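Filed under: proteins

Residues; backbone shape codes:
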Amino acid sequence: MAEKTFDDLRAFIDAARELGKVCAIEGADWNEEIGALVEAAAELIPDPPLILFDKIKGYPPGFRVVSLPMASPKLAGLALGLDIDGKSTAELRELAQKKMSNIPRIPPVEVPSGPVMENVMKGSDIDLFRFPVPRFHAADGGRYLGTGDCLVNRDPESGYINVGTFRMQLHEKNLLGLWISPGKQGRQICQRYWDRGEACPIVATYGQDLLLFMASSSFSRWGECELDKAGGLRGRPVEVIKGPLTGLPIPARAEIAIEGEVPPPSVEARDEGPFGEWPGYYSGGTIGTGEKQPVIHVKAVYYRNNPIIHDSAPLWPGAIKYGLNYHTGKDRLEKAGIQDIVSVGSPMQYMQVISIRQRYAGHAKQAALAAASGTYNGRWIVVVDEDIDPYNLKEVLWAMTTRCDPARDIEIIDGCWSTPLDPLVSSDPSKREPNTQTNSLALYYATRPFNLKDKFPKVSRSPADLRDKVVKKYRGILNFPL
């Protein structure tokens, strides 16, 4: 399939259907069943399809939930607008990493209206329970509308518009809970309103085009609007409508959108959670901090005919939600002046692996420290030689167990940026107070010692090109994976 990007979620679903990568399921229960089925598919199916739920228990046909839109490498490449024909996962990962590392900025364009305005609820008509909002995990404190979402707010001082992805619990028909980890830009903007004694105006969407969701859920510099980033990924501007109540931009082709405000937590707050988070534990919210959390007062709801909620609820790390686990750290390290970075990957949550071609003594340490400076809620940074694939956990563990001398090659840095979502932070009573939520970071130097490179035993493993050759030659006889 040639390179093409999609302006909304349903156009992407149509393209995925053409590839034979959509599984339609009818009659599932929003209460735990959708969550359990999605987790099982992501954990047990090697190349899972996009799952589209319809006729959800207690809801009319057409009110749908989409899950795992990017769990398949091909679908992830499709969402990014890559040419996926005949490409291996490794090739797609390389193309994705290149695209995400060199994103032009194209500002949004304002339009008078769009499909999201097909239906409007205001005042007493607002009822978010009209949508089949899932309760994903057995011990979740409620139903969560905000998983595959974008929250838009504007800094009152600079006018900078931020778009971030944060979890939102459905408390009442017109009231949502909001959990934003400390340090995130969306929370910093809210705090500036709260410090003035004001509520923070917001827009939120649930089910938007996947490139906007990628931009929203990835790291951006302060002052760098994710709408511009999404436009760059698309190759054309994101169409937005000026919110009638807030003046904030509403993506015109979103499935569901709200306008509302977040009052200071000192004025109004609720217990939030628990919620099963991406580390694989119930964390964050009230159980992570011991405090009630902010709420969103919903002033208006806009939605398309036959709306689709994007389920991006966190899964435990053994369930793969993103088929292209690319990492953009290579570009950042090169900009920091680190030379001969071969590749950067994350074979597991909390682990970043940097493959380098060693050029001088201290090269491995320089790369690890540069990576540590930009790490959020990490645990391990592992530096390996150029013959190790950072995405291949077997190879990474081989390097860690044969090229790392623990007495010399493991370094600990404490006081790093963390979050209450980290189970080691949330379970520590000493880290309940604000500004105490940090963790330590281990730097593993799993490279051949630079001063012993020429003396280190040679690798006996078959060369990669020969392995590839024999796998292709004998795939019809032995069941090698594609």
